[in-house]
Amino acid sequence: MSSDVIAVYPGTFDPITLGHEDVVRRATQLFSKVIVAVAAGHHKKALFSLDERIAMAQEAVKPFSSQVTVESFSGLLRDFVVARGGKAMVRGLRAVTDFDYEFQLAGMNRSLMPKVETVFLTPSDKYQFISSTFVREIAMLGGEVHKFVSPFVQERLMAKVPSPPA
């Protein structure tokens, strides 16, 4: 682990999945401090409010609480990272389909933050196919999501989604 290196792991986390949790765990092995940065998500229609997403993320990172904090941000991620003294940005890659977007984003972020490195981490094989979008859709259609999210997230998800269609 690098000493005193702050990494920021940004996302909307709507909801936070076991894949996200696995990336956080991996990041704690590399960085002294990890900030899970929950985006206000002004460009996306979130199922959960910002406060709900923050609460779920805080619960998810409890096992790593000595190294991980959860904060919200709005506006440019660059401003958030620089203000927190971030030296690395963590991005999760699930499949090759993520790579093109993430590669372009890393290039743009390097232009905006030349002193901040983007580090790509892949989740464990069993989590590589999980996305928050898929989890929301499965839950909305009455499917089981317990294999994709922690129990506390599943509980909130089931309370949030309408009854499945008949």
Structural account:
This protein has helices at 18-28, 50-60, 77-83, 96-112, 132-140, 151-160; strands spanning 6-11, 33-39, 68-73, 88-92, 117-121. By secondary structure, it is an alpha/beta fold. The protein has a single domain, classed as HUPs (Rossmann fold, 3-Layer(aba) Sandwich). Helix 2 (50-60) links the parallel strand 2 and strand 3. The termini are far apart.
Question: Strands, helices and their partners?
Answer:
Layout: E1 6-11, H1 18-28, E2 33-39, H2 50-60, E3 68-73, H3 77-83, E4 88-92, H4 96-112, E5 117-121, H5 132-140, H6 151-160
Parallel strand pairs: 1-2, 1-4, 2-3, 4-5
| Low-pLDDT sequence parts | none
Which H/E pattern describes the elements? Answer: EHEHEHEHEHH
Radius of gyration: 16 Å
Please give the CATH architecture.
3-Layer(aba) Sandwich
Number of folding domains? 1
**Approximately how much beta-strand content do the residues carry?**
15-25%
Largest beta sheet: strand ordering: 3-2-1-4-5
From the spread of the alpha carbons, the general shape counts as: globular
Termini gap: 52 Å
Helix percentage range: 25-40%
Tell me the CATH topology.
Answer: Rossmann fold
CATH class: Alpha Beta
Instruction: Figure out the total of helices.
Output: 6
Which properties best describe this structure?
globular; 166 residues; 6 helices; five-stranded parallel β-sheet; 5 strands; Rossmann fold
Short description:
This protein is an alpha/beta fold and 166 residues long. It contains 6 helices and 5 strands; from the N terminus they run βαβαβαβαβαα.
